[in-house]
């Protein structure tokens, strides 16, 4: 099968959906001729014109609000937020307006909008351009949250997001835009709420989101070398969450590590670990543990930044401890 | 009253009068429901500002869109809403416009193009502008009107979306209801300079109009709505008006920020309904008796709707996790 | 036209208002807009105006009263006559009954506290009629609590002089629901429970305590123990994973016995064998059963003839089939779809994912749903193996028969279900062709 970059996969998903449905438009900063700073959208304005690939001023709340209004009245806007960190600028439009409109109107109005943005540290961009803020969005009922782990997922999930009648926030890891993966030539989409078992194993389950799936897969390789069989699962969407697949794997292996690039406290790792604890407790042979980003703002210096995020080595060491039955005590 | 060149037909004039009376009557009943502790939560009265909502909405088609505010009952009635479904919503009943999930501050009536009241001051400015973007892209000819108060001019969102609306010539009319007070503070204490100048800075054609003169409001709105349909938008209106009640129904002792004399002056000398009534009689469109009869009909209609809503059932508790997502019937199931 | 004057809701979150002063008095004429009264809320004092002209009548709240918002406190009427008070059905009828029949002297019987956190009890019914003589141990009444129905004895000898609650009444605990007098009373009281009435029951003596305690034969329901496992010695907490704890509980094994061997903690599922050994040897030493759960034991006898022929055929014709996989397939199919079966035979243990198709019954890993000890061909002629973390079936040859014995702790498989499983298995062993169809 052909291999394409994640960037190209996103571009293809948008182009295909824009060809299928003329209500799909792109709205954001430098999305047209510039094709965004990451060049993900290059070529789209040439095909679809500036009426559908719309450059906005640097007014995140403004164009997000316009996206919400357009979605409520018959368009399917894909709002492009240049950096995930800017989500704090649009919180009212995203969380008070888009997320609640369907509910507050008793089901009469809906907001079929996609907010495409990114996440991920180690790009030497420091604290305001490196955050992974998906947990904050996942906390708000009414929003769906997708986290592609490769080019394949990026394309399939974005196509589903565009066709969804709810506001969907899709977080792409900005360090993965140039990573290639096998992506079919023919059209496909990936349903929300269906986790993907990336690798089967019997001793421990590693649950990873976005680029942390790769981290888990590398850790699984290392574990295999020492005779430990690790299962790797990618939830693909954290809202809705395929709890069943995660819990079943936890019951099977009895040991779980959850890895996510958001800050460790009050985040996705905590939520998933908690659900496993509730639903699989009597099958657990070790405490379910979390590995997230350090609870510090992302520092600039490479020497500091690199130690803030989860690595395959950390996952490997933690998995060994759990499997060997070492007493894990956080205190 | 303004001396309209294009003379209003008796039907149009009486319809505007009736709509203003309907709003006033609705609000009086809503106020009573609150004071008698029959209505949960609280509410913000539109009384005194009727000519703004009616003058503008009478220039719109049902397919045109509006966004409304926390002081939104007037816009909802003026855009064609039904009393029963409105009172049901105010009381949190199943038959309310939003099945009781929105209440007074989130009432929406999609069937008449009302995209909803918004409890975030200035929160709907993006939505109205986005609705205008849809109209432009889909070439529907719809016009969007964004109602907001003078207080909302202090929100940054307004400047962002007016900028884009002007850049893209969107068919949106920003209708600033300047009732003189931003919650409990005089507008002149929160707004520097001129309000219309804010829009003019973006090259948006702006007007200040007497918001207590329904004919003046309607005449200007007709013109601007027609032009917006032709792609000549956006426009900005500052409608000088007055709210008779406090910021909300519980804001009773308000002499610390507003004198009783001032309130009496607006009520007695500038009331939009009294003025329109005199105009109708003077122009021979209606007799005093006929207008009394109209008042009576509307009052009965409202009382029946209140009675209906008080007796209507609450939504079943199973609805609590419905309508979170369009495609998941019960999100917690 | 009549206008109700209500206590208005004024503050942001106000439930009541204090009526400071009336500016008008009963029967006085008022005109619309005149100040009627002053109210104090949490924040401010304000004057409330008359909503209409007329006469102020029917004042129900006085200066200084705190009144719930929405309550009618007066009426503006067309005439100065005080309107006939709207009869309030509830209070009127209560008053009619009220000439409170004097309660007889005696000791009160109270609604007892029976549950863990019980505020009230529902009186299910009386076992004695008013005036009846009662003995201390006689059941006087039945009470339903959150958990169960409890019979409550009289607690003392005497006569049931008053019943102050009726069947179905929900009575707060501690409230008097009956009076037992020393002597027979001529006119015993019998009425439903009403809060105010009981306070009139005057007695200096403390409530009969015995009555608060249910009979020994029907003890107060206790919260079931969450774990039936024997607790480890106090202060000597055993560290074990939830999974091992569950397996130990299901098999009836005691973790303390493993801890006593000095086996390193924390224990995990991989320590199950050690746990089993520790329990088995302890069992041998002490001769006491360590199984804390009811166990089902069933036996069946079948002829081995057809089975032997079938096993021979299968090993020649079915790919990868052997005695163990065939028996695993039979056993698994008897238990249900997709069962995992472990076969112990001649010291070798193999685990199979059972499938109705023999060729698809393949080796697997994981915990079994059923354990089979195939003791055919050994000298053992009778076996009843202890239950394990899954139901156990032993197969022994005895003369011209195979004896199939199933043992299982009841929480895994019991009674009718166990019988069905063994019957299914025995049927397949007796007539293997049945398995194919």
What report would you give on this structure?
The complex is a heterotrimer of chains A (331), B (333) and C (437). Chain A is of the alpha/beta class and 331 residues long. Chain A has helices spanning 6-20, 44-48, 60-72, 91-104, 134-138, 151-163, 212-225, 243-253, 268-280, 302-305, 312-324; strands at residues 3-5, 24-28, 53-55, 76-80, 114-119, 144-146, 168-173, 180-182, 196-199, 204-208, 230-234, 237-239, 256-263, 289-293. Chain A has a 7-stranded mixed β-sheet, sandwiched between helices. Chain A has a 5-stranded mixed β-sheet with strand order 9-11-10-13-14, sandwiched between helices. In chain A, helix 3 runs parallel beside helix 4 and helix 7 (212-225) packs across helix 11. The longest helix of chain A is centred in the N-terminal third of the chain and has 15 residues, at 6-20. In chain B, the strands form 2 sheets. Chain B has a 5-stranded parallel β-sheet, sandwiched between helices. In chain B, helix 1 packs across helix 2 (50-57), helix 1 packs across helix 12 (288-311) and helix 5 (125-138) runs parallel beside helix 6 (156-167). In chain B, helix 6 (156-167) links the parallel strand 2 and strand 3. By secondary structure, chain C is an alpha+beta fold. Chain C folds into 4 domains: 3-77, RNA polymerase II/Efflux pump adaptor protein, barrel-sandwich hybrid domain (OB fold (Dihydrolipoamide Acetyltransferase, E2P), Beta Barrel), CATH 2.40.50.100; 93-203, Beta Barrel (OB fold (Dihydrolipoamide Acetyltransferase, E2P)), CATH 2.40.50; 244-286, no CATH class; 295-436, Chloramphenicol Acetyltransferase (2-Layer Sandwich), CATH 3.30.559.10. At the A-B interface, helix 3 and helix 4 of A face helix 5 and helix 6 of B.
Q: How are the elements arranged and paired?
A:
The complex is a heterotrimer of chains A (331), B (333) and C (437).
Chain A (H helix, E strand, L loop, with lengths): L2 E3 H15 L3 E5 L15 H5 L4 E3 L4 H13 L3 E5 L10 H14 L9 E6 L14 H5 L5 E3 L4 H13 L4 E6 L6 E3 L13 E4 L4 E5 L3 H14 L4 E5 L2 E3 L3 H11 L2 E8 L4 H13 L8 E5 L8 H4 L6 H13 L7
Parallel strand pairs in A: 2-3, 2-4, 4-5, 5-7, 6-7, 10-11, 10-13, 13-14
Antiparallel strand pairs in A: 1-8, 6-12, 9-11
Chain B lengths: L9 H26 L14 H8 L7 E3 L5 H6 L4 H8 L34 H14 L5 E6 L6 H12 L4 E7 L2 E2 L2 E2 H4 L4 H6 L4 E6 L3 H16 L5 E6 L19 H10 L2 H11 L5 H24 L22
Parallel strand pairs in B: 1-2, 2-3, 3-7, 6-7
Antiparallel strand pairs in B: 4-5
Chain C lengths: L2 E4 L9 E7 L6 E2 L4 E6 L4 E5 L4 E4 L8 E3 L3 E6 L11 H9 L9 E4 L9 E7 L6 E2 L4 E6 L4 E5 L4 E6 L6 E3 L3 E6 L7 E2 L4 H5 L9 H4 L29 H10 L3 H6 L11 H15 L8 E8 L2 H13 L5 H13 L4 E6 L2 E6 L8 E2 L6 E5 L17 E7 L2 E9 L5 H16 L2 H4 L1
Helix pairs in contact in C: 8-9
């Amino acid at each position: 099968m052909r291999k394409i970059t994640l960037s190209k996969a996103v571009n293809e998903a948008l182009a295909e959906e824009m060809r299928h449905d003329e209500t799909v438009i792109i709205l954001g900063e430098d999305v047209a001729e510039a094709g965004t700073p990451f060049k993900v959208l290059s070529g789209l304005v040439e095909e679809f014109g500036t009426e559908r690939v719309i450059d906005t001023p640097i007014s995140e709340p403004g164009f997000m609000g316009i996206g919400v209004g357009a979605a409520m009245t018959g368009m399917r806007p894909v709002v492009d937020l240049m950096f995930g960190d800017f989500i704090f600028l649009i919180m009212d439009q995203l969380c008070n307006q888009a997320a609640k409109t369907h509910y507050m109107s008793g089901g009469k109005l809906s907001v079929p909008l996609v907010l495409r943005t990114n996440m991920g540290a180690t790009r030497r961009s420091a604290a305001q351009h490196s955050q992974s803020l998906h947990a904050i969005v996942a906390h708000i009922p009414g929003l769906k949250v997708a986290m592609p782990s490769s080019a394949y997922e990026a394309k399939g999930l974005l196509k589903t997001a565009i066709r969804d009648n709810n506001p969907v926030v899709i977080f792409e890891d900005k360090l993965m835009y140039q990573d290639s993966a096998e992506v079919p030539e023919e059209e496909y989409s990936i349903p929300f709420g269906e986790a993907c078992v990336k690798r089967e194993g019997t001793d421990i389950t590693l649950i990873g989101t976005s680029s942390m799936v790769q981290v888990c897969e590398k850790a699984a390789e290392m574990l295999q070398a020492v005779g430990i069989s690790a299962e790797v699962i990618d939830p693909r969407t954290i809202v809705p969450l395929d709890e069943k697949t995660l819990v079943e794997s936890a019951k099977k292996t009895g040991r779980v590590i959850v890895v996510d690039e958001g800050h460790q406290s009050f985040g996705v790792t905590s939520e998933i670990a908690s659900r496993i604890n509730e639903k699989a407790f009597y099958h657990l042979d070790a405490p379910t543990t979390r590995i997230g980003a350090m609870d510090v703002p992302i520092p600039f210096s490479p020497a500091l930044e690199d130690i803030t995020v989860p690595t395959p080595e950390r996952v490997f060491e933690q998995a060994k401890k759990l499997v060997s039955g070492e007493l894990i005590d956080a205190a | 009253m303004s001396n309209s060149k294009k003379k209003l037909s008796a039907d149009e004039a009486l319809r505007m009068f009736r709509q203003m009376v309907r709003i006033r009557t609705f609000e009086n009943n809503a106020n009573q429901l609150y004071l008698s502790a029959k209505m949960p939560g609280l509410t913000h009265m539109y009384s005194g500002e009727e000519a703004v909502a009616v003058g503008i909405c009478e220039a719109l088609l049902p397919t045109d869109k509006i966004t409304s505010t926390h002081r939104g009952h007037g816009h909802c009635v003026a855009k064609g809403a039904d009393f029963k479904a409105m009172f049901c919503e105010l009381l949190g009943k199943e038959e309310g416009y939003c099945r009781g999930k929105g209440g007074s501050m989130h009432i929406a009536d999609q069937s008449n193009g009302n995209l909803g009241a918004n409890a975030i001051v200035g929160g709907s400015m993006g939505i109205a502008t986005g609705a205008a973007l849809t109209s432009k892209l889909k070439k529907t000819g719809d016009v969007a009107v964004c109602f907001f108060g003078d207080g909302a001019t202090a929100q940054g969102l307004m400047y962002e979306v007016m900028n884009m609306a002007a850049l893209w010539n969107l068919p949106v009319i920003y209708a600033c209801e300047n009732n003189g007070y931003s919650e409990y503070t005089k507008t002149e204490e929160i707004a520097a300079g001129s309000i219309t100048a804010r829009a003019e800075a973006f090259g948006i054609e702006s007007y200040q109009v007497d918001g207590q003169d329904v004919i003046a409001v309607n005449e200007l709105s007709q013109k601007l709505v027609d032009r917006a349909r032709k792609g000549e938008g956006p426009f900005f209106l500052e409608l000088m008006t007055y709210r008779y009640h406090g910021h909300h129904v519980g804001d009773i002792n308000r002499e610390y920020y507003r004198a009783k004399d001032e309130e009496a002056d607006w009520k007695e000398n500038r009331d939009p309904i009294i003025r329109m009534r005199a105009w109708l009689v003077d122009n021979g469109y209606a007799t005093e008796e006929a207008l009394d009869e109209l008042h009576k009909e509307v009052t009965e209609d409202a009382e029946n709707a209140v009675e209906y809503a008080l007796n209507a059932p609450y939504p079943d508790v199973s609805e609590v996790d419905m309508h979170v997502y369009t495609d998941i019937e019960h999100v917690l199931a | 036209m009549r206008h109700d004057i209500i206590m208005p809701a004024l503050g942001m979150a106000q439930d009541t208002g204090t009526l400071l002063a009336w500016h008008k008095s009963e029967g006085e004429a008022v005109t619309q807009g005149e100040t009627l009264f002053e109210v104090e809320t949490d924040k401010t004092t304000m004057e409330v105006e008359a909503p209409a002209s007329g006469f102020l009548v029917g004042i129900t709240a006085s200066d200084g009263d705190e009144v719930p918002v929405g309550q009618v406190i007066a009426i503006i009427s067309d005439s100065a006559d005080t309107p006939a008070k709207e009869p309030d059905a509830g209070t009127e009828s209560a008053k009619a009954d009220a000439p409170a029949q004097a309660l007889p002297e005696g000791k009160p019987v109270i609604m007892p506290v029976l549950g863990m956190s019980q505020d009230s009890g529902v009186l299910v019914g009386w076992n004695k009629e008013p005036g009846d003589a009662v003995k201390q141990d006689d059941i006087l009444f039945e009470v339903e609590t959150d958990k169960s129905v409890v019979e409550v004895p009289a607690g003392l000898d005497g006569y049931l002089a008053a019943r102050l609650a009726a069947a179905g009444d929900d009575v707060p605990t501690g409230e008097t629901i009956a009076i037992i007098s020393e002597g027979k009373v001529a006119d015993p009281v019998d009425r439903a429970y009403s809060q105010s009435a009981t306070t009139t029951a005057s007695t200096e003596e403390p409530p009969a305590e015995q009555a608060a305690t249910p009979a020994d034969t029907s003890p107060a329901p206790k919260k079931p123990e969450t774990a039936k496992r024997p607790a480890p010695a106090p202060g000597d907490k055993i560290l074990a994973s939830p999974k091992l704890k569950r397996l130990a509980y299901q098999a009836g094994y005691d973790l303390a016995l493993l801890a006593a061997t000095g086996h390193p903690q924390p224990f995990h599922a991989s320590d199950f064998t050690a746990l089993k050994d520790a329990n088995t040897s302890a069992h041998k030493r002490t001769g006491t059963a360590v199984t804390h759960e009811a166990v089902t034991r069933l036996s069946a006898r079948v002829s081995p003839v057809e089975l032997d022929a079938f096993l021979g055929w299968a090993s020649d014709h079915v790919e990868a089939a052997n005695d163990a996989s065939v028996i695993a397939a039979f056993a698994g199919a008897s238990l249900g779809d997709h069962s995992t079966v472990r076969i112990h035979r001649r010291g070798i243990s193999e685990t199979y994912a059972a499938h109705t198709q023999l060729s698809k019954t393949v080796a697997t890993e994981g915990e079994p749903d059923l354990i089979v000890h195939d003791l055919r061909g050994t000298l053992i002629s009778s076996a009843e193996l202890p239950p394990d973390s899954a139901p156990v079936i032993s197969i022994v040859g005895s003369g011209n028969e195979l004896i199939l014995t199933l043992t299982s702790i009841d929480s895994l498989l019991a009674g009718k279900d166990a019988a069905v499983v063994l019957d299914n298995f025995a049927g397949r062993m007796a007539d293997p062709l049945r398995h194919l169809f």
